[in-house]
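Can you please make up a protein's amino acid sequence together with its fold in token form to help me picture the idea?
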Amino acid sequence: MAGGLRAAARGRRARGGPALSLLDGDGQITRGFALRGLATLKHAAALPAITALATGADQPLAVRIRAVRAMAAIGQPASAEPLMAVASAASVDPNPSSKPSPRSVS
């Protein structure tokens, strides 16, 4: 039984390779789907690349959020510090809204 579990773990690591290569893609949707896949596979070897996306100020907010979710799903203790840094960053609005704020009428 233990041999089967090890083989399954090796298979998960091998399957993460294509998704890991997509993290460098140009499109934020592509990076988002790659992050979702790596999170589903719990691909811990991808954490350095995922952390870079989560903490990269040049990344779109949607990619940063997906990266934070992937880090949480993978669940490695090493993710706690970068997660806190992203959550407490002054440049990130804790309550983003896609709707324009109402203007006051005077």
About this structure: Residues 57 and 69 are 17 Å apart (CA to CA). Residues 1-13 have pLDDT under 50 and may be disordered. The radius of gyration is 17 Å. The helical segments are 2-22, 28-41, 47-55, 61-74, 80-87.
